[in-house]
Design goal:
Protein name: Protein RRP5 homolog
Region (Disordered): 1-73, 993-1031, 1405-1539
Organism: Branchiostoma lanceolatum
Subcellular location: Nucleus, Nucleolus
Helix content: 10-25%
Subunit structure: Interacts with NF-kappa-B p50/NFKB1 and NF-kappa-B p65/RELA.
Strand content: 25-35%
Structural class: alpha+beta
Shape: globular
Distance between the termini: 14 Å
Largest sheet: 5 strands, mixed, barrel
């Protein structure tokens, strides 16, 4: 749509000759002079055009005489000042812009002549796009947060950009899309054309040690920016170094090296200001870029501006870009510094600017200097008139405004010059601004000036407004508040109740009063409400969290209802939680029964945290007793509180002088968590606590704290007041709020909560955070990542990353504080008992054993009054006491609140406490003492001074984040050492450090010093060889030596330990199997050990592991392996004296030699997978259990992770050993290690094939179950009850090989619940007698009859005369009634025990079951036998009466003694009848008594003579001939003719191509005639498969592949596919893969992959399909159809998350042009198989970038129509019909829209569509007529 302010310029006429081209271009540029009125011109002929060109030349000559330069000789032919408009913009046009607004994902850019452009984040630079992709994919982005545009751009920045495209917005206005990518801006440049002095735009590509690499968008060019060149730039922009990746830069080329392949840059603003383009740069219009500084020479001064020449080109300078404060006008020939604004690539027009503010790199353009939008100026004088364009007005002394012609009046303006003369004054209103032009955009329209609102920002939440209804929709109504502002009243806000049909109450055009709910200026969305309660409410408007003061009552509406409460919405998106407990008297009811969405509620603010945007509400009155935050609450404020209640984990308090309740958690009584329970026991109700600090506000009241670390941090200003105060790398003091296995939640004063992930809580690997931290523990945290959008952040608790901020306290001060605090509390508690128990510490006292347990002993000490003494297992070593024994103990610790004293019974510790006392002088500061380690705590070691009962506390390297579970470290109980006293507390406690160590004043080495020392160490270490390292390490510890080890960390199947006393590099591992001697099933032997535990073990072996430490990098020390010792803690190993060698481990490769098959071993679970369980058996020996071998109970296999816990031990039997990988294959089945007949084992359904079920068995076996072996009661569809991957039990019947096992699923065989066996599993025919009624399944139907399986061993035959009561002449017609697998009921007619032959009958008279053929089959019934006999006799009598000779039967045994009876068929008019002849009494010589061949390859029916006698006369399958009678000559002639006729018919049948082949010979004849026909070959294969002759079918396929010509690729492909299908259905996976690999060699690989994956999908092999697709997307990564098909498969199998991840992966491999199609196809999948809302979002994202993609719109509309959401469909149709598409496409969309409304809408909606279509046609006709 054309903007009236910028009408279209003239067109350029094309001619054939150069002269015509020159004249037409000059003419075109004169027509493009938009400041001159352009009269309407009709199409002129050749003479008229020539005449006009002559007049133009004369006019130019006259202007030249007046002092204006002739432009005919200039290359770009600029003769007048140019004004830019939407119609003149073309893709690829370079233009200079000024950033007007910055959002997270796009820029709003001010362009010349008042135009506005938009740049999306994906069009900024390739570097930024890559960073976004890395962030979205979760790649390692070095801790950087998500790159957004506000971090790179600021309003007022000048940018060089290119017009990407001009599209039409939803409202019909043109929208300019820009690209700032250096690749597009510098597209005309090449590396060889670059010269020093050129100014280019670029972006930071990477950050290097000495500078930055810069992306200039020039292919093959490397640009480098030295850090020294950035200082002035960073200082002027007030930015911190280093710059970010993607940072936009304007760079000056300092030097060009390597022939244009590398350049050095600078970004100094001073140098950039002086960088004027010279002629020696050889610049052309194609290589010039906007923003380039040039020295221009004025050639002409016009009314609308200036023309100037530069570098051989001519440019125009609009008067807007001529400085207004200039004292004298420009004159011809004057040299002026100018800046290029844009270069039109088609017309070669160049626009310049004389405004120096555009190239002043030190400052930004002030976008705030313009008047506020909506400001009204009463007297604005006209200072310039642009003919046909608009006017420029003087708004103030320094402000100018431009009003386009469309904004001059509400009525059409005929002549601007007449109506708006220079100097006249008018009222106007600011509607926009143009920072690049330096002027405001105004409107003189009275309607605009009187508008109440011009933009959404003019509205305030809670404001009452009045508007007019513009449309009524089912989802709400649209309200127009002014010509520029529209809002929406959603359905729930139309009234206090939910209206079912809003159209009955509201009509278009009605006036309506509303209240503003929310103003989203960025998304241009205005939400209104028409609820009467909210409109008439007099309560305060909560439009911000700051306004939500505790105790405030306000009206809101229910946004959502959950089981825990309601979410209540107020104004401006202020939301609060109404907990279930605060809902009044019905607090116990389900909130869903009390509230509904949209309900208006009046609630009270209980507490509010504006920084966190958390608001808690209540429906209860203020005097209901619900605690609220204190009125004077302020984080960090010091108050005195009074204890009101003592709870087990906290104190209830209230601030003195106030009744506001609060609480003080127990863990906030001190920074030392070990003292908190002791301190809590000191307080009672009524006590006053001084110096408490407000910490945070909770729903239960204000929380106060006594932690000195928090009080000091808040006092020193280390408090977070708003979320913006949280910055990366900031170190804060806080406490542990919650501990979870995946991480630790840390809370800080003010209620801010951050998460420390498991990887960031310790410098060592840990599996579970719960063992390291406890709730309430004081910690130091470092902020690592801040998410401002979601208002959450991550922290690190690693001690190496969290120094103690601003605290100079040493470990001695910390220890002194802990001891003093504890002593004061203990003295206060023990004062009531009249004794100072602290004096008993370290003393040796008599005690009596009262209880002995595995963990230690409990004793009674008379001197300790009511305290119970406890000695741990470590402190009971060396004793052998029983209950009642008396002994001596040494007091170590006192736990007064729990009345427990920790003591030691170890003799070595008691002996050190001699009676002779140590001299007091040595207990002074500086004295050195000999001591013995007694115990260890988190912050100190407890030692006993030798020769004394005195104790000392030795400092340890400690950090608040270490936790309390640190163990002894390198020390051991009983270890001798020396200490030096550094301080003696007032209570007499001695604090010491290890002798030789300084307590304070030791200067910490800086990071650089540490690095230098580390490098020196490395340089020395690299001179040693790897072999020497191994020898040195192994020499330190001998194999078999007993050592002490400290647990360092836990892994999946072992401890990592450090062997003490042998240096820090002596590392070891303790395998789970070497922890304990007797491990019970289900026991976790490593559970009782923790980090820091010290134990005794024996070294039993040496292992080597490759390391990648800094000292052992592959290029410096290749092949280096670190020695790791295998240690055993098993008591039998440790205490073995001389025979310990039998426990030593062999070499790593020989460790499976000690295991044998069928051996029972203990294994330890590592991980549970879907199909198997990984286990560890012993050091270096792993194990594997298949899912089916885990347990005899099927229920255990359904969820093995619930039965087999990680790190727990279980017993298993070895089934096989893989020595190459040191892996044992195990089984937990009680009676099975190999498959054998009669064994009942687990099975899993692999696939279902016709007639059988294929199963996976334990130990890698494959089995199958026939239909008769599936159940004790046969059913019509037995395979339907089984599903692929179903787990069940089966009994093995036959086991020919591991891959061919016949099984039975019958409960009677498996041993299930005892049920009546309805269909027995017959072993032989002897189990059956004649007359039995049996059931079975049809196995085959051929010319010999129907064969049914009664069990897997017993089968029977049904002759066709016994199969049905209907007479069917062709047996092929019977096959469809007897398909394979059909359940049938039969009666046993005859049993041949000798030949194992059964004759059955399906007839209804025999079985009582309806006939297998339905009544509607259309076949006649068979004639009963007695009726046939009667008819035969009647016919004989008739012949005798007629004188016919009596038939005689003559048999000449000598002439015809073949032993085979011959029958002759006699034909009658009614039906064919067979007349039997009584056989000879003598037994024939050929007797077929061998019985039937019941296999599938039955070819000849072996029927005895006795059986032949019982055949029916009309049995179509058994031919019985009469003895020949003498025929007349005539009869013989007729018979000969008949035979010839039959022979002729047979020959014709052979020649008939449509005759179906009946035998293999027939097929051979066909394939000989058409050897290249794949259809014939496939039918030949199917013929053999029907008879289950698999090998023959495979042979036919191989023949086909050799026979078909190599040119017939498609025919051969069909055979390959058929062969793969055959192998998949009837063979093993190995044979299928062999055929597949062969097919890949002879066909297109992608085609074969697709065929195989389709085969897998058809047969339900989901896992194989997934694996094959995974291979395909790697091998054919650039084929989009492969990614789409894989996504379709994942969506069909309910794996939406995997499909989403797959789509993101595809973008890395596919070309960008395929991304749109891939996204659209995945969106269609979401509509059909996944989340419809996600699919809609994906389509919307595509259309936002490609709004004119007709195909995408068509698919999107189709998907929306299928969802049934009519409103969404109509919105989509309205959007697409508003686009400016081709007439053909628009016609198609309107037609579909109309059809949709006719089907789903009513007459009104149909008429609306027709009206829109007419409006489009009229608009098109108008455009054509105008053109």
């Amino acid at each position: 749509m054309e903007d009236d302010a910028f009408p279209r310029g003239g067109t350029v006429q094309k001619t054939d000759t150069a002269d015509r081209t020159t004249h037409s271009r000059k003419d075109a540029y004169q027509q493009d002079n938009l400041f001159m009125p352009r009269p309407d011109e009709k199409k002129k002929g050749k003479k008229q055009r020539k005449k006009k060109a002559e007049k133009t030349a004369e006019k130019a000559k006259r202007e030249s005489e007046l002092g204006e330069e002739e432009e005919g000789s200039l290359p770009n032919l600029v003769t007048s000042v140019q004004v830019l408009s939407y119609k003149k913009l073309v893709s690829g046009m370079p233009v200079l812009g000024c950033v007007k607004e910055v959002s997270d994902c796009d820029l709003t850019v001010s362009l010349p002549d008042g135009l506005i452009g938009f740049a999306q984040i994906t069009r900024i630079s390739d570097t930024l796009t890559q960073a976004l992709q890395e962030y979205a994919e979760g790649s390692d982005h070095t801790g950087e947060d998500m790159p957004t545009l506000p971090k790179l751009y600021r309003p007022g920045m000048m940018v060089r950009c290119v017009i990407a495209e001009v599209v039409t917005s939803k409202s019909g206005h043109p929208r300019i899309l820009l690209s700032l990518n250096p690749r597009d801006v510098n597209q005309g440049l090449q590396g060889t054309a670059l010269k020093p002095g050129m100014v280019l735009s670029g972006s930071v590509a990477s950050i290097e040690d000495h500078g930055y690499t810069v992306d200039l968008g020039v292919k093959g060019l490397r640009a480098f920016l030295n850090r020294a060149e950035t200082e002035e730039y960073l200082q002027s922009r007030q930015m911190d170094a280093p710059m970010r990746r993607g940072q936009p830069l304007l760079c000056l080329v300092r030097s060009v090296v390597s022939g244009g392949r590398s350049v050095n840059l600078t970004i100094s603003p001073t140098l950039l200001q002086k960088a004027v383009a010279k002629e020696d740069l050889d610049l052309t219009l194609d290589t010039l870029t906007p923003g380039t500084l040039v020295e221009a020479t004025v050639t002409s001064v016009q009314d609308h501006g200036v023309l100037a020449e530069f570098l051989g080109f001519t440019g125009s300078i609009s008067r807007v870009h001529v400085p207004t404060k200039r004292s004298e006008p420009y004159r011809k020939g004057q040299k002026v510094k100018a800046c290029i604004l844009y270069i039109h690539p088609t017309t070669k027009t160049v626009a310049l600017s004389f405004q120096s503010r555009l190239w002043d790199g030190r400052t930004l353009v002030d976008v705030q200097e313009f008047p506020t939008i909506g400001t009204v100026y009463k007297k604005a004088a006209v200072i310039h008139v642009w003919s046909g364009i608009g006017v420029t007005l003087k708004l103030s002394a320094e402000t100018r405004g431009f009003a386009a012609v469309s904004q001059l009046s509400d009525q059409p303006v005929e002549s601007i010059e007449t109506t708006f003369k220079l100097g006249t004054q008018h009222s106007c209103r600011v509607i926009n601004c143009s920072p690049l032009d330096g002027q405001a955009i105004v409107s003189l329209k009275k309607s605009v000036i009187e508008q109440p609102f011009l933009r959404l920002q003019d509205l305030k939440p809670g404001q009452v407004v009045e508007g007019k209804i513009t449309s009524v929709q089912p989802h709400g109504i649209m309200v127009s508040l002014s010509n520029y502002v529209r809002g929406v009243v959603s359905k729930i806000h139309l009234a206090d109740i939910i209206l079912k049909n809003p159209a009955k109450k509201f009509n278009e055009g009605d006036k309506i009063k509303c209240r503003v709910l929310n103003v989203a200026s960025e998304g241009r969305h205005l939400a209104l409400t028409h609820k009467r309660t909210l409109l008439s409410s007099k309560l305060p408007i909560l439009a911000s969290y700051q306004a939500a003061k505790p105790g405030t009552w306000a009206h809101g509406f229910v946004l959502a209802v959950q089981d825990f409460g309601c979410i209540v919405m107020f104004y401006n998106n202020v939301k609060g939680l109404l907990p279930k407990r605060e809902m009044g008297q019905d607090a116990q009811e389900d909130p869903r029964k009390l509230f509904y969405k949209g309900q208006v509620v009046k609630c009270r603010v209980m507490s509010c945290h504006p920084a966190q945007e958390k608001l808690t509400l209540s429906l209860k009155p203020e005097n209901s007793g619900t605690p609220v935050a204190a009125a004077d609450f302020e984080v960090g404020k010091m108050v005195d509180v009074e204890v009101t209640e003592v709870k087990p984990d906290s104190l209830g308090v209230k601030v003195q002088g106030s009744d506001t309740p609060g609480f003080l958690p127990m863990m906030h009584l001190s920074d030392h968590q070990e003292n908190c329970p002791l301190l809590l026991s000191r307080y009672s109700a009524g006590d006053v606590i001084q110096g408490a600090m407000y910490c945070c506000s909770r729903a239960t009241g204000s929380m106060v704290t006594l932690k000195p670390s928090l009080k000091k941090a808040v006092t020193s200003g280390q408090v977070v007041e708003t979320f913006s105060d949280l910055e990366a790398d900031r170190v804060l003091r806080g406490w542990v709020r919650t501990v979870r296995p995946f991480g630790v939640f840390v809370e800080f004063p003010g209620g801010w909560v951050g998460l420390a992930p498991k990887a960031a809580v310790s410098d060592r690997f840990i599996e579970d955070c719960t063992s390291l931290f406890e709730e309430g523990q004081s910690v130091v945290a470092k902020v690592t990542e801040v998410d401002g959008e979601k208002q959450r952040f991550l922290v690190s608790l690693k001690p190496s990353e969290c120094p103690l901020p601003g605290e100079g306290s040493t470990a001695v001060d910390t220890l002194e504080s802990l001891l003093s605090e504890r002593d004061r509390a203990v003295k206060q508690l023990t004062a009531e008992k009249g004794a100072d128990l602290l004096k008993q510490l370290g003393k040796v006292l008599p005690a009596t054993v009262t209880n002995v347990q595995e963990a230690g002993m409990v004793l009674s000490i008379p001197d300790l009054q009511d305290l119970t003494a406890v000695a741990s297992k470590t402190h009971c070593e060396g004793t052998n006491l029983n209950v009642g024994d008396s002994t001596s103990v040494r007091i170590l610790h006192l736990d007064i609140p729990n009345n427990i004293a920790e003591v030691s019974l170890r003799p070595d510790l008691l002996d050190h406490a001699a009676k002779e006392k140590t001299k007091k002088g040595k207990m002074k500061k500086g004295g050195e003492l000999a001591c013995t380690v007694l115990d260890a705590k988190a912050k100190y070691l407890l030692v006993g001074v030798d020769g004394s009962e005195g104790l000392a506390f030795v400092t340890r390297k400690w950090h608040p984040n270490h936790g309390s579970n640190v163990g002894l470290g390198d020390s051991q109980v009983g270890e001798k050492s020396k200490i030096r006293v550094v301080k003696v507390t007032k209570g007499g406690g001695v604090i010491a450090v290890p002798a030789g160590k300084k307590a304070e004043g030791k200067k910490e080495k800086t990071g650089e010093e540490k690095n230098r020392k580390r490098k020196r160490d490395e340089s020395q270490d690299t001179t040693e060889t790897c072999e020497e390292d191994r020898q040195n390490q192994t020499e330190k510890i001998k194999i078999g030596e007993v050592v002490n080890v400290v647990v360092v960390a836990k892994a999946r199947d072992h401890f990592e330990v450090k062997i003490t006393g042998h240096g820090h590099r002596q590392e070891g591992v303790v395998h789970m199997s070497e922890v304990k001697d007797d491990v019970k099933e289900g026991e976790a032997p490593m559970a009782k050990f923790h980090q820091g535990s010290v134990v005794t073990g024996r070294v039993i072996g040496v292992s080597h592991k490759k390391v990648k430490s800094l000292k052992s990098l592959p290029f410096s020390r290749p092949g280096f392996e670190e020695v790791v010792y295998d240690v055993s803690l098993r008591e039998s190993r440790v205490k073995a004296d001389t025979d310990f060698e039998k426990f030593l481990l062999p070499e790593e490769k020989l460790r499976t030699e000690g295991y044998k098959e069928d051996q029972t071993v203990m294994f330890y679970v590592q991980s549970v997978q879907d199909s198997h369980v990984h286990v560890s058996v012993s050091p270096g020996v792993q194990g594997k259990l298949d899912l089916l071998s885990l347990s005899d109970k099927v229920q255990d296999l359904e969820d093995p992770s619930a039965v087999f816990k990680p790190k727990c031990g279980y017993l298993g039997t070895i089934t096989s050993i893989d020595k190459e990988t040191s892996t044992l294959h195990l089984s937990r089945l009680e009676k099975a290690t190999k498959l054998s007949p009669g064994l009942v084992v687990n099975a899993q359904v692999a696939k279902k094939v016709p007639g059988r079920l294929v199963l996976s068995l334990p130990f890698g076996g494959k089995g199958f179950a026939d239909l008769t072996d599936l159940s004790d009661s046969y059913s019509s569809n037995p395979l339907s009850v089984f599903k692929v991957n179903q787990l069940l039990r089966c009994c093995i019947l036959e086991c020919n090989s591991k891959r061919h096992v016949r099984v039975s699923l019958r409960p009677s065989r498996v041993g299930g619940k005892a049920r009546k066996v309805k269909d027995p599993d017959y072993e032989t025919v002897e189990d059956i007698v004649e007359g039995d009624i049996v059931r079975g399944y049809v196995e085959d139907c051929n010319k010999h009859g129907v064969f049914a399986a009664l069990s897997h061993k017993v089968k029977g035959r049904v002759q066709y005369r016994h199969a049905t009561a209907y007479f069917v002449r062709k047996q092929e017609n019977l096959k469809k009634y007897f398909p394979v697998g059909k359940l049938v009921t039969a009666k046993v007619l005859e049993v041949s025990y000798k030949s194992s032959h059964l004759e059955l009958s399906f007839l209804e008279k025999d079985t009582g079951v309806p006939d297998p053929l339905p009544n509607t089959c259309g076949y006649p019934l068979r004639t009963p036998k007695d009726q046939k006999e009667k008819k035969r006799k009647e016919r004989g009598k008739e012949k005798e009466e007629k004188g016919g000779k009596k038939r005689k039967v003559e048999r000449d045994s000598d002439a015809d003694d073949s032993g085979v009876e011959v029958a002759m068929m006699k034909s009658t008019d009614e039906e064919e009848e067979s007349v039997p002849i009584k056989p000879s009494t003598s037994e024939p010589r050929l007797t077929l008594t061998g019985g039937f061949s019941w296999g599938d390859d039955l070819a000849v029916s072996k029927v005895t003579a006795q059986e032949r006698e019982s055949e029916d006369e009309d049995d179509a399958e058994t031919e019985i001939s009469q003895p020949p009678k003498k025929k007349s000559k005539k009869e013989r002639e007729e018979e000969r003719k008949a035979n010839d006729k039959e022979l002729y018919k047979a020959e014709l049948a052979l020649l008939d191509e449509d005759r179906p082949p009946q035998s293999a010979d027939d097929f051979d004849r066909l394939v000989l005639s058409s050897p290249d026909s794949s259809i014939l070959w496939l039918r030949y294969m199917a013929f053999h498969l029907h008879s289950t002759e698999i090998d023959k079918a495979r042979t036919v396929a191989e023949r086909a592949l050799k026979t078909i010509s190599f040119r017939e690729e498609k025919e051969k492909l069909n055979v390959w596919v058929a062969l793969m299908n055959l192998e998949n259905m009837y063979s093993t996976e190995e044979s299928l893969m062999a055929v597949f690999q062969r097919a890949l060699q002879h066909n297109d690989a992608l085609t074969i992959f697709k065929q195989l994956v389709n085969i897998y999908k058809r047969t339900g092999k989901t896992q194989a399909t997934d694996q094959l697709y995974g291979t395909m997307v790697k091998r054919f990564r650039d084929n989009k159809d492969t990614w789409i098909d894989y996504g379709q498969f994942l969506m069909e199998n309910k794996r939406a998350e995997a499909a989403h991840s797959l789509m993101q992966r595809s973008f890395k491999s596919l070309d960008k042009k395929d991304h749109v199609q891939v996204i659209s196809r995945f969106a269609v999948m979401e509509f059909k198989l996944g989340d419809v809302e996600r699919g809609r979002t994906m389509f919307e994202n595509i259309l936002s970038n490609y709004p004119r993609q007709v195909s995408i719109w068509s698919v999107y509309l189709e998907m929306l129509i299928k969802t049934g959401d009519l409103d969404q469909v109509r919105v989509a149709f309205d959007r697409v019909t508003a686009l400016n598409l081709s007439t053909k496409n628009m016609k198609g969309f309107f037609k579909r829209y109309l059809e949709f409304e006719k089907k789903h809408g009513d007459e009104n909606t149909v008429s609306v569509v027709k009206r829109k279509a007419m409006e489009y046609v009229e608009a098109k006709v108008g455009d054509v007529s105008t053109a």
